[in-house]
Design brief:
Blueprint: H1 11-23, H2 31-38, H3 42-54, E1 58-60, E2 67-69, H4 72-84, H5 86-101, E3 104-111, E4 114-121, E5 136-138, H6 143-150, H7 154-167, H8 170-180, H9 183-189, E6 192-195, E7 202-210, E8 216-225, H10 231-251
Helix pairs in contact: 2-3, 5-10, 6-9, 7-8
């Protein structure tokens, strides 16, 4: 058992989770390359795939025999989002931000040590950021992730940072130490930014969405190409993002 864990895990379940995660990284996989990627015997991977296919999580191409994920995980994830009510509540406020500044707006929620994009409103500019729904990015390397961490409960933040440190190398650990000292400042301003950390040529401004316990349940971010990142636009983006995210938070029960 991992010394950092207070419980036992089931090896076969962990392997299936790793397999699903790997399958999501490409549109389709051959059995041999998939087995090599996850570091498991081909026979084991094949059995896992047959079971996942039987349960509707994986499909196999009839002609080439390659494997890919089905839409079942998307369906499950959509149900989770619907139950929280966040997506339905947030959308009109995201639309207002877009209308005000015409820059891409994303709504992201935590998924392990990453942030998961569950909604977006896309700028009409030819030069813009546009991510796929369902895209993920590391918490510590993004404005959305850091604002979420800053407004999480202290114990949850410590747990997530410990997990992020365990998964990352020295560079990640150094970054964590840097931001440990900044979380209080981020909480006082209510805004976090990143400078092309996720996408070259794109800077992001992020604000928290709080739930009924006044802790973060997600983040709203505005993505602005560096060519348009000027004081007047940045000031307005911060202002409207804070305003609309506060309204979302109130609808989510924050006081």
């Amino acid at each position: 058992m991992d010394e950092g864990k207070k419980y036992y895990t089931i090896g076969s379940v962990e392997k299936v989770c790793d397999l699903l995660d790997t399958l999501s990284k490409k549109s389709s996989w051959e059995l041999n390359e998939l087995a090599t990627e996850v570091g498991l015997p081909k026979t084991s991977v094949h059995r896992f795939l047959l079971t996942l296919a039987d349960k509707g999580f994986v499909v196999q191409e009839k002609r080439r025999g390659r494997y890919s994920l089905s839409y079942k995980l998307f369906s499950i994830g959509s149900k989770v989002v619907e139950k929280t009510g966040l997506l339905k509540i947030a959308r009109p406020y995201l639309e207002r931000i877009l209308t005000e500044i015409d820059e891409t707006v994303n709504l992201a929620v935590p998924s392990g040590t990453e942030m998961l994009v569950i909604d977006k409103q896309v700028s009409s500019h030819a030069l813009r950021q546009e991510v796929r729904l369902g895209s993920t990015f590391p918490m510590i390397n993004s404005a959305s992730g850091r604002i979420f961490l800053a407004f999480s409960e202290e114990e949850e933040r410590k747990r997530l940072l410990s997990q992020i440190a365990a998964e990352g190398g020295e560079t990640v650990q150094s970054k964590i130490e840097l931001f440990r000292e900044r979380f209080a400042l981020i909480r006082s301003t209510g805004v976090e930014e990143d400078d092309e950390e996720q996408y070259e040529g794109i800077r992001c401004i992020a604000v928290p969405v709080l739930d009924g316990e006044n802790v973060a349940c997600g983040a709203v971010s505005v993505s602005i190409p560096t060519l348009r990142y000027r004081d007047e636009l940045v000031h307005r983006a911060r202002e409207i993002a804070v305003e609309q995210a506060s309204l979302i938070s109130r609808r989510m029960g924050a006081g």
